[in-house]
Design brief:
It is a single chain. By secondary structure, the protein is an alpha+beta fold. The two termini are 41 Å apart.
């Protein structure tokens, strides 16, 4: 036994990491063996990450190279690909490239195991820096790896990375604080930036500032040293930001340009500082302290919001007993800091103002959600550290405070009993197969901690006692994780089977139908109707086709256009996230380049005017728009935006076919349409008028000769001066060349690109190159070079003493 303890002390991080690896493999074996598709365990996995991964794989297989623009998102949007070179993203992509989609999902599951091991490793390393005993570090490391945040957020894929990165950053900060080893701060910051982007840098900067402040006040160091440390940390943090400059630029331009960001800027300003959080949300947070599965798991969860958005504070029932012990057994000064941390965590749960303070410089709904997620993780980290401190105090005292343990056990059982009884009042369904285990372990911990370490007051806390504590902790948290993962595997297989059974799913007849269209027609066009019954907004990117319906990340111009002329396309009142059905509208489908429509055979929904039956592939009927318009159409008349906005949505969609919409005050060669002309056009109800207008638009349209995602080449032959509007969102980075000369881009038809053209034949080229891209590349290269030189200089000086 002494040999075992000695080995663990010498290799605490390796020992804890090995234990975590074994536990993770056992827990995730269904995913690791391919018996359940990992990315189907939650809807975001197959509606967001799987399509993006497959899109990346398809680009590699087709040899297109990485394009920073993608027409499969909305009417086209900036696509962030560089962040998917991050290892936990890149390895599944490479597995998909060299093998298949199944290998991609198995590799993604192995990445989750990898994240858990890293989380354990950095937890142990950080606690060792705080001078905790090795046995305590190992127990705390395993507790953190099996906590509710890591288990559940690991299924929300990217958020699982945050768990180990947070500990990496804390360890790096402590290395600098204690040993003046600064090298890890830029590295950890760069890793954070590459994984999560700009806003997390802002949040973690705030968190590190708070952490450094608490550490200095606790150690009573002089104020002069404090400010020197803060400023030097800030400089090192900035170096890490610059190292990741290329990734940050790529991620930032795609995020900041989306409607999900810009359309909700004012959200945080509406938050009331004194408003208390809804009782059901608070109740949900309290219940999640006891077990991640108490109220059901994943798609079966019936509590407030859902498990992935709401904080998951569960990090083992042992934490309930050890945190009070930390307060009881610590010195007076330490008590104050622990109690202050508990009050701060409680205030976060109860008052939205706490979260709002974190967003004081970035007023945005989307980013506010992220601060909630991150703050809940930091509360869990605080609980793990305080639990480790309580265990440390118990070891040094050779036992725990008996009365404190008993009172804690009684209070926990009482509170949990009350939660179970009151759950129905808050709309929660309690899983009693899980609750009985919570009660059992609460009683078990009470008994074990009361009688542990009392063989004699002068004897050391025995190794057997630590082993027993470790085993019970693993048993309790492992049971919770196993219950979660078993249900998640069932959900994954259920979703996967539904996707295979759905004719419009990833693996149904839809795939063959799209393959048929692509072989028949290599032009540039949009396809409507590509949406599954399971998730009606995720298919276009998965199949690499162009349709305006896609989950999240439609950009601001697309949102502005649809919000004005077709707001009903936003299927759940969240226009910044969801859009569908544009290709089914006869007028919009014409002006935005929809050529094909797909429906399930036997569907009672009528197809738009102008579409003719083309073919059937399995259960999918394909219709072709015989009067399709190009991605670029020309107009000889226009209407001011202010006048256009006065018409209703249906009238606006009609007008788009007859005249261009330009911003007020635009200096143009076109003649403005009069109110009488507009009214007379709107009075035309028969489709012959529609067809005549379509014919007119076709005469002098943009003819595409060659294209790829970020470059479109073609020509136009005009009989008179006109304005040409491309159904491409007006986003910085696009350039239009006419006969080799750069043209000024205007905004037309609310959110799209427009240029003026004189009569005659013209060669037109549209290219997209992210602005300041090469600057970001050079910034990263310079920062990496500066970091390497600084490390080399420091090593040289250290050798000289």
């Amino acid at each position: 036994m002494n040999r075992y303890v000695s080995c663990m002390k010498k290799n605490a991080a390796a020992t804890a990491s090995a234990v975590t690896f074994i536990l993770a493999v056992i827990l995730y074996h269904k995913y690791l063996m391919g018996n359940a598709p990992y990315l189907y365990s939650v809807s975001d996995g197959f509606s967001q990450f799987l399509p993006i991964y497959k899109d990346f794989v398809d680009m590699l297989k087709e040899g297109k190279g990485i394009s920073f623009w993608n027409f499969s998102v909305g009417f086209g949007a900036e696509q962030s690909y560089i962040k998917f070179l991050y290892p936990t993203n890149l390895l599944p992509i490479l597995a998909g490239y060299f093998r298949n989609e199944s290998a991609m999902m198995i590799t993604a599951a192995w990445m989750q195991v990898f994240k858990m091991v890293l989380a354990t490793f950095f937890t142990v390393m950080f606690l060792k820096k705080l001078e905790f005993q090795d046995e305590v570090c190992c127990v705390a490391g395993v507790m953190y790896a099996l906590c509710g945040v890591l288990i559940l957020r690991g299924h929300w894929w990217l958020l699982g990375d945050e768990c180990y990165i947070a500990m990496f950053i804390l360890w790096a900060a402590e290395c600098y604080y204690r040993d003046k080893k600064w090298q890890w701060i830029p590295v950890s910051t760069a890793v954070l930036a590459c994984a999560f982007g700009l806003y997390y840098l802002y949040l973690y900067g705030l968190e590190l500032f708070v952490y450094a402040t608490v550490r200095y006040f606790y150690d009573k160091r002089p104020a002069r040293d404090y400010w020197r440390f803060i400023l030097s940390c800030g400089g090192l943090y900035l170096m890490g930001v610059c190292i990741a400059g290329m990734v940050l630029f790529d991620y930032g331009r795609s995020l900041m340009g989306t409607a999900r960001y810009t359309a909700t800027k004012g959200y945080a300003d509406q938050a009331a500082a004194v408003k208390i959080v809804d009782k059901d949300v608070l109740f949900s947070g309290i219940v999640s302290l006891f077990d991640v599965n108490t109220s059901g798991v994943f798609q079966n969860y019936t509590g407030a919001l859902n498990y992935l958005e709401r904080p998951i504070f569960y990090c083992g029932l042992l934490a309930f007993f050890l945190i009070p012990q930390a307060v009881i057994l610590s010195k007076k000064r330490t008590k104050k800091f622990i109690i202050g941390g508990i009050i701060a965590a409680a205030a976060y749960m109860i008052f939205p103002a706490v979260t709002d303070i974190m967003n004081m410089f970035v007023r945005n709904e989307e980013l506010g959600i992220r601060s909630y997620r991150m703050s809940s993780l930091w509360i869990v980290i605080f609980m793990v550290i305080m639990s480790a401190y309580g265990l440390e105090c118990g070891i040094k005292r050779r036992g725990f405070h008996k009365i404190g343990v008993v009172i804690t056990g009684i209070m926990c059982i009482g509170v949990y009993t009350l939660c179970v009884r009151k759950a129905s009042f808050f709309g929660m369904t309690i899983d009693f197969n899980v609750t009985r285990w919570v009660f059992l372990f609460l009683i078990l911990w009470t008994i074990v901690l009361v009688f542990f370490g009392w063989q004699g007051k002068r004897r050391d806390f025995s190794a057997w006692s630590m082993i027993l504590v470790s085993l019970i902790c693993i048993l309790e948290m492992g049971h919770s994780a196993r219950t979660t993962l078993n249900v998640s595997a069932q959900c994954a297989n259920q979703f996967y089977d539904q996707m295979k059974a759905d004719p419009l799913g990833y693996y149904g007849d839809l795939s063959e139908a799209i393959h048929y269209i692509k072989e028949k027609d290599e032009g540039l066009y949009r396809i409507s109707g590509v949406r599954t019954a399971l998730n009606p907004y995720c298919s276009p990117l998965y199949f690499g086709i162009y349709d305006s319906s896609y989950y999240t990340n439609i950009n601001s111009p697309t949102f502005e256009f649809l919000n004005e002329v077709y707001p009903e396309s936003f299927i759940n009142d969240l226009g910044s996230k969801y859009s569908t059905g544009v290709g089914s509208d006869v007028y919009l489908s014409a002006v935005t380049g929809y050529k094909y429509l797909m429906r399930v055979h036997g569907s009672e929904e009528a197809w738009p005017y102008g579409y003719e039956y083309l073919a059937s592939v399995g259960d999918i009927d394909i219709y072709e728009n015989k009067e399709v318009l190009s991605f670029g159409i020309s107009y000889k008349k226009y209407i001011k935006k202010s006048k256009f906005e006065k018409y209703n949505d249906e009238e606006q969609r009609k007008l788009l076919l007859f005249c261009a919409v330009l911003e007020d005050g635009t200096d143009t060669i076109l003649k403005e349409i009069s109110d009488q002309e507009a009214e007379s056009l709107l009075c035309l109800e028969d489709m012959e008028a529609y067809m005549s207008c379509v014919k007119e638009r076709q005469k002098e349209a943009f003819v595409v000769d060659a294209w790829k995602e970020d470059r479109i080449e073609g020509q136009a032959d005009l009989e008179e001066d006109r304005i040409m509007i491309f159904s491409v969102p007006n986003v910085k980075g696009w350039k239009v060349y006419v006969d080799g000369v750069t043209q000024e881009i205007m905004e037309g038809n609310i959110g799209f690109m427009a240029i003026e053209l004189t009569e005659g034949k013209h060669v037109i080229e549209l290219t997209y190159q992210p602005t300041a891209f090469w600057f970001s590349v050079m910034l990263s290269a310079a920062a990496i070079a500066a970091y390497i030189i600084a490390v080399a200089i420091c090593k040289k000086h250290s050798k000289k003493g």
